[in-house]
Design a protein that fits this description.
about 35% helix; alpha+beta
């Protein structure tokens, strides 16, 4: 077979192939009983049905958050500002590295409605994407929620 040039007609150089005969699929028999063949190509992917229309969804805003003491807010803002500025969004590893807050604790605080920008449907925190990333403002409120919970337990 030769390589086609820029102006060659591919139909003239292509080898002729005889058309394949279509054969009807016969059932497989096993000791006198027929076995049904399944066509897996027509199998559709099963997807989760959308949530019912009656589902209560809410987006956590800053007005929904509890009031924290001003000195504590200022201290947490300084901690968040000290993080290198090359990262706009922080992941769970970054939050663990800088503040010692685990993924489980962060998820509990989001479910409790203590982190703004999180959407909750019927008590379930909805995913933002494949990997959850937190803005610096969200990290501030998350750390405040963790610190405030520790102080309220100690008191």
């Amino acid at each position: 077979m030769s390589q086609l040039g820029l102006f060659d007609d591919c139909e003239t150089l292509a080898p002729k192939v005889a058309p394949a005969r279509e054969q009807a699929a016969a059932p497989i028999t096993s000791i006198g009983s027929a076995v049904v063949r399944l066509n897996l190509a027509s199998h559709k992917r099963v997807t989760r049905p959308p949530p019912p229309k009656s589902a209560r969804a809410r987006l956590i805003n800053e007005k929904d958050l509890p009031c924290y003491p001003e000195p504590e807010i200022a201290a947490v803002e300084r901690l968040v500002a000290a993080i290198s500025s090359d990262r706009a969004l922080l992941g769970y590893k970054d939050i663990w590295k800088h503040f010692g807050v685990s993924k489980a604790t962060a998820n509990r605080r989001m479910k409790d409605g203590l982190v703004p920008g999180v959407r909750i449907v019927d008590g379930v925190v909805m995913r933002d994407g494949g990997i959850r990333r937190f803005s610096r403002e969200q990290v501030k409120w998350l750390v405040l929620a963790v610190c405030f919970a520790k102080e309220s337990i100690d008191a």
